[in-house]
Design brief:
mainly alpha
Length: about 80
C-alpha cells in the first residue's frame, strides 16, 4: 500500500495529468498513505514511504485545487469583459 500511495502521489504532481485523474489519484493516495502508515506502525516497520506518498498526495491535491480555482477566476474575469 505504501508503494501505491507513493506512486499515486507522484502522479498527482505531474502537471500534464488531465483534470479528473490528478485530484482522484491524490485522494486515493492520501487514503492509502494513511492506511499504510497505520499498518506499518502496528507492525513496527518503517513508515517513510507511506508518509512520503501521503505528503506528495496532499501537495498534489492542494496544487490541483489552487490551479482550478485560478482557472475559474480567470474565466470569471474574462466573462466580465
Amino acid at each position: 500500500m505504501a508503494i501505491a500511495a507513493l506512486v499515486l502521489g507522484i502522479i498527482s504532481l505531474v502537471p500534464l495529468v488531465p483534470f479528473p485523474i490528478g485530484p482522484i489519484s491524490a485522494v486515493v493516495g492520501i487514503v492509502l498513505g494513511v492506511l499504510a502508515r497505520k499498518k506499518a506502525s502496528e507492525a513496527g516497520t518503517p513508515t517513510g514511504m507511506a508518509t512520503a506518498g501521503m505528503v506528495l498526495s496532499i501537495i498534489g491535491l492542494a496544487l490541483s485545487i489552487i490551479f482550478w480555482a485560478f482557472c475559474a477566476a480567470v474565466l470569471g474575469a474574462a466573462s466580465l469583459l
